[in-house]
Amino acid sequence: MTFGSPASFRRVAAVIVVAGLAVVVIQPARGEAEKKGFLSKIFGGTEPEVKSIEKPTVPQTKSATESKPKSTLGSKSKPKASKAKSVAAKSSTTVQKTTPKPIEAEKKVEPPKQTPKLEPQAPLPAPQPKPAATITANVKREVKPSATNPWHIIDVGGRDYVTLESIRNFYNPLFGFTGFRQQGNHIWLMSSKLVIKAQIGSQELLMNNMKFILSFPVISQGERTLISRLDLVKLVDPILNPSHIQGAEYFDTVVVDAGHGGHDAGARGVYGYEKNYALQMAQHLRTALMARGFKVVLTRSTDTFISLSGRVSIANQIPNSIFISLHLNSGGSTASGIETWALTPQNAAATISRGGGYNVNGTTGNKQDSANIALASAVQARVLSTVKVVDRGIKRAQWSVLTGIKKPGILFEGGFVTNSKECLLIASGNYQKTVAAAIAEAVVNYRKALEPAMVNRR
Fold it and tell me: What percent of the chain has pLDDT over 70?
């Protein structure tokens, strides 16, 4: 999906280039300056302080039978049965050269189901955008804004949606929206700090040109553009208003998980295996985080196999911590770019079919939904503002290293080892250090952004 952007919101920013980086060029991601701007304004920027606003109420959830992910050895979904162990010694690994074996990634999105409801809150003014395209749907109930409710809620086919108009009104004190633009099915909501772009019928939402994958498509009903209530509560609000995330825990430690290991080689790349690159990047990330004052625990520091459940067990034993799992991607020979995964919210489907399907009952990790998406956004934004790579978006799945985690956690995919040009970069020590430093800076920015909401500070 391609969006046009008003010329007045384009900005030019310098892109950090590491001396001696590989001699190939990866396709630049769009909107590098805007992605960096998103990071600076939301996650630890230099903009003047703006008076905060009230947080939408977290919806109630329902119980049913959970849909379990299916996977093979080495995937991120299904835990294995071996005993977990933590290795403290640091060591280097040897990159193995081999013939690439591309694997096409599945992109099918599971059909959405019913979502929970949202309690109304305090009122804001109500501007009137006028979308053109309309999706015919069965409107069962409509709650209009009132003196005690800022949200225009419309029940469409049994699922609650919120109008884009009421979203603009609620966040207007924070961002000062000055413009609304409609062109066919494409909609822009604009301010000097933030540009939100949506497309009716699509699950992609761009905020300052950084890509987020919604749980449900944007729709329209009559003259109104609608975003699902679940996406408002579980994605939009934690990103636009991270200082109001409820129950955010203070942390001084980062558990860094190098994916795969031992007999589980992970993706087979053009110049080596995922397990080796993940470990090398984890070691660089440990150095970068320690330089910024964080304590670091590696789930593995050698070429050792640890089960997925074992990784979760290690992380859950570390107090005052967050969790970052590092992986490299596989796909066709032309597939490229980075993506960051947060746990699928309850009553929503994973972004891809092999990502665990529909999350009916919720999991342990869903208690950290808001912090998860904020951490994912901080990491994705910082890496994109540092290196020229394709933005594949912030996505959702029930990977096993995320479902059982009792603290904020994400899974970062640092590029495709099955793409010869991208794998050449991934194999570069300079690239690994640059990405690791960007992730470490993202952790700093994430903590600053959530600091007003943090409890149990030590």
Answer: 69
- What is d(CA 404, CA 411) in angstroms, rounded to the nearest whole number? 13
- C-alpha span between 395 and 400 (Å, rounded): 15
User: How many Å apart are CA 426 and CA 259, to the nearest integer?
Assistant: 15
Percent of the chain at pLDDT > 90 equals 64
* pLDDT surpassing 60 at residue 200: yes
156 touches 226 (CB < 8 A): yes
The greatest distance separating any two alpha carbons of the chain, rounded to the nearest whole angstrom, comes to 66
Token duo for residue 421: 């040009």
Query: Cα–chain-centroid distance for residue 401?
Result: 15
CATH number of 139-238: 3.30.457.10
Tokens describing residue 331: 């796909």
Domain spanning 1-111+239-458: CATH superfamily: Zn-dependent exopeptidases (3.40.630.40)
pLDDT digits (tens, 9 = 90+) for 121-178: 333 223 333 333 344 457 778 999 998 899 999 999 899 999 999 999 999 999 999 9
Burial of 132 (0-12, 13-18, 19+ CB in 10 A): middle
SS3 assignment, position 121: coil
Q: State the Cα–Cα distance between residues 72 and 36, nearest whole angstrom.
A: 37
Question: Which residue, chain included where needed, has tokens 């990790």?
Answer: 365
Pairing mode of beta strands 338-343, 391-397 = parallel
Distance in angstroms between the alpha carbons of the first and the last residue of the chain: 45
* Domain parsing of the chain, residue ranges: 1-111+239-458, 139-238
Per-residue pLDDT tens over the stretch 83-119 = 333 333 333 333 344 433 333 333 333 444 433 344 3
Using alpha carbons only, what angle is made at residue 352 by residues 419 and 196, rounded to the nearest 5 degrees?
90
User: Tens digits of per-residue pLDDT, 396-422?
Assistant: 999 999 999 999 999 999 999 999 999
Write the CA distances from 89 to 298, 313, 420, integer angstroms: 10, 19, 32
For residue 199, the cross-strand partners are 186
246 Cβ neighbours under 8 A, 6+ residues apart: 55, 58, 370, 453
